[in-house]
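During the second year of the project, the team shifted from modelling isolated chains to modelling whole assemblies. The rationale, set out in the original proposal, was that interfaces cannot be judged from single-chain predictions alone. As a representative example for this report, we include one of the complexes processed in the last quarter. Its constituent sequences, exactly as entered into the pipeline, are reproduced here:
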Amino acid sequence: DTGVSQDPRHKITKRGQNVTFRCDPISEHNRLYWYRQTLGQGPEFLTYFQNEAQLEKSRLLSDRFSAERPKGSFSTLEIQRTEQGDSAMYLCASSLGQQGPSYEQYFGPGTRLTVT
Amino acid sequence: GEDVEQSLFLSVREGDSSVINCTYTDSSSTYLYWYKQEPGAGLQLLTYIFSNMDMKQDQRLTVLLNKKDKHLSLRIADTQTGDSAIYFCALGPGRRALTFGSGTRLQVQP
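Output from the structure prediction step:
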């Protein structure tokens, strides 16, 4: 399977704990995006990378959130001191990031986080 | 910012056509996308249209874009039970992040 993969698929954690999610993009894609989706809503943009450079962060990405893409391949999203409001589906997407339709973003299956 | 609005729910009978609508406020969007999400799954890219086009057809899918009214629609011909899902429209300048609507749940009745 050459699609976007995410790990874990589900994570249950207690409030105050730290969690880390991993995303492996499609191998030739140099752009990687993180989104958050809450129940009944569309995905909301968190941050994106061009290779290893983090180019944009949304205001949703508080200082408890940090994302990395150290070698321009896989990415991690860490949430420190989780709160119940962090419960959501965290989606990763990747794209070629060249011209025209190659900006199409392909999504992984998501990591569902539940904070108790 | 960009507001993207969709109706919440659409119910059709199997074999009929479905039309899912989307309105938006920011006219600078250059790519407009339709994604499908099945329960518990990620988003599947269905099709997209570039802002200088009025229509795009892709097998059973037809996308119509009315730039004057800032209205995007997705028509699914011969709707099947497997088409039951949530459909999101999304807007982008292409190279940056997408702005999604809140989704339309399509229910196909046999």
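Chain A has a mean pLDDT of 91. Chain A is about 0% helix and 50% strand.
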